[in-house]
Design a protein that fits this description.
Helix content is 78%, strand content 0%. Helix 5 packs antiparallel against helix 6, helix 6 packs across helix 8 and helix 11 runs antiparallel to helix 14. The protein is globular and about 85 Å long. This is Binding-protein-dependent transport system inner membrane protein. Pfam families: BPD_transp_1, BPD_transp_1_N.
């Protein structure tokens, strides 16, 4: 088991290094001068040269990359050009909104999708199966930002049950949760549609196995066969999608947070890109990459817990 974990951790570390090279290179080749964007088109050459020197833009690319990557290793992501604040502080402040939003959306997606997938698989070919998967297909096809606007129009503007946007802060308690409810639902439902279809497919494959027929022949209740024997053995593909969905939800808040005016990571990235604040963009993107790698590592560990054969296989 320790060799299994070490191999996955080493793979994740190598992926992180490669991702840092790609992120740094892509952002460096983007057109536009950050110093000129910050000072304006009428800035004097002396002022531009002084700002470039202060931002470290005059240094060689290799030196700038190693300064950036060594700073990340000790938790120093640099200082924002626009906000004059350490990037780590900006990210920590915005994560207080984005992380609960992603976790709430993932919880809603899982609570909706797995029961629907199991229900549809247990009634394969029947009307309930057709209706469930038809609704899931609609959920896959609907863009989440359009669905978010529809939720705002119905529940915020029409019924006035929840706020249309903004975030009052966690000090407000229930009001903060209400502010995250519509964004979480708009993120969760399209992902729930995908997860429900995957769950149904995995369940149908398992339900055709010999041990399921044996369990039924022994007279076990239908609920026990479905939820204890079949679902447990269908979890591998479901866990894969859950891991990918969490990373998508954390990164996919860029559009939703701008729709609902939430002060999270997505809005921070949008503002940093528009202001050419590259150090902030690099920090946030690397955080998201690290989150994807960490989630994939956790999913691999859950694989080993769900399927003991993975712990002993070469």
């Amino acid at each position: 088991m320790s060799a299994y974990i070490a191999k996955r951790a080493l793979t994740g570390f190598a992926t992180l290094i490669v991702a840092s090279l790609v992120v740094f290179a892509v952002l460096e080749i983007l057109p536009g001068d950050p110093a000129r964007i910050m000072l304006g088109m009428n800035a004097s050459p002396e002022a531009l040269a002084a700002l470039r020197d202060e931002m470290g833009l005059n240094q060689p690319l290799v030196t700038r990359y190693f300064d950036w990557i060594s700073g990340m290793a000790v938790g120093d992501l640099g200082r924002s050009y626009t906000y004059s604040t350490p990037v780590s502080e900006l990210i920590a402040e915005r994560l207080e909104v984005s992380l609960p939003l992603a976790l709430l959306a993932l919880a809603l997606s899982t609570l909706i999708a797995i029961p629907v997938g199991v229900f549809a698989a247990s009634r394969r070919g029947q009307a309930a199966d057709t209706v469930s998967m038809g609704l899931a297909q609609i959920g896959v096809a609907i863009p989440n930002f359009w669905f978010a606007l529809l939720l705002v129009y119905v529940f915020a503007v029409g019924l006035r049950l929840v706020p249309a946007g903004g975030f009052p802060g966690w000090d407000s308690g229930w009001q903060a949760m209400k502010a995250l409810l519509l964004p979480a639902v708009s993120l969760a439902l399209p992902q729930a549609a995908i997860l429900a279809r995957v769950t149904r497919s995995a369940m149908l494959e398992v339900l055709g196995e010999d041990y399921i027929r044996t369990a039924r022949a022994k007279g076990l209740p239908r609920r026990t066969v479905l939820w204890k024997h079949a679902l447990q053995n269908a979890l591998i593909p479901v866990l894969t999608i859950l891991g990918l969905q969490f990373a998508f939800l954390l990164a996919g808040t860029i559009i939703i947070e701008n729709v609902f005016y939430l002060p999270g990571l997505g809005r921070l990235v949008f503002q940093a890109i528009s202001q050419r604040d590259l150090i902030v963009v690099e920090g946030v993107v690397m955080l998201l990459v690290a989150a994807v790698i960490l989630v994939n590592l956790l999913v691999d560990l859950l694989y080993a817990a769900a399927d003991p054969r993975l712990r002993t296989s070469r």
